[in-house]
């Protein structure tokens, strides 16, 4: 009986130690910032539904949607769309959404076949911010068809591309937020007193 009690105490001690040890990483959990959401639950529901982060059961039951679902895939990612729209004049060599990389083919403008440019865009995060993209620009200069020199240029072109992509992505995010906005009319019921 004494061994059973000591085993119970030891088990409770281990579980408590494990629980307390895992609590120190709570700030790394996914989720939103509590300061961005109203403290009143009804106001949070209203805000979430207006921004399109939820569903309304009355619309589902009445069949107002009329469609089976939205399969947006990469078109829902504003950075991805903005990147493709920005470099749409260049031929693409490799595009991998799941890997988060876009690589263009060599491109030369006009009659200048001796110089060409290649762009690589790597996505580091889906958030629209300056460090979300890693853009590399490569130049190829050929004196003859066989003798070509390829160099990576760090300069204004990559900074301009990043600025253009982030600006377009911000516009796409705002349009998407405005499109999903639906005024919240629920939550008020007439009760007889």
Care to give the gist of this entry?
By secondary structure, the chain is of the alpha+beta class. Helices cover 37% and strands 18% of the residues. The protein contains five helices and five strands, in the order ααααβββββα.
Name of the top-level CATH class of the largest domain: Alpha Beta
Instruction: Indicate how many domains the architecture comprises.
Output: 2
Provide the spatial order of strands within the biggest beta sheet.
Answer: 1-2-3-4-5
Task: Give the overall average pLDDT.
Answer: 77
Biggest beta sheet attributes: 5 strands, antiparallel
Share of helix, binned? 25-40%
Distance between the termini: 62 Å
Low-pLDDT regions: 68-72
Strand content: 15-25%
Q: Count of DSSP E strands?
A: 5
The rounded Rg comes to 27 Å
Q: What is the overall silhouette?
A: flat
The helix tally amounts to: 5
Named at the architecture level, the CATH assignment of the largest domain is 2-Layer Sandwich
Describe the structure.
The chain has 193 residues and is of the alpha+beta class. The chain folds into 2 domains: 35-68, no CATH class; 73-174, Alpha-D-Glucose-1,6-Bisphosphate, Chain A, domain 4. It is 37% helix and 18% strand. It has 5 helices and 5 strands, in the order ααααβββββα. Strands 1-2-3-4-5 form a 5-stranded antiparallel β-sheet, covered by helices on one side. A hairpin with a 5-residue loop joins strand 4 and strand 5. Helix 4 (78-86) packs across helix 5. Mean pLDDT is 77; it is low at 68-72.
Features:
193 residues; alpha+beta; Alpha-D-Glucose-1,6-Bisphosphate, Chain A, domain 4; 2 domains; five-stranded antiparallel sheet; 5 helices
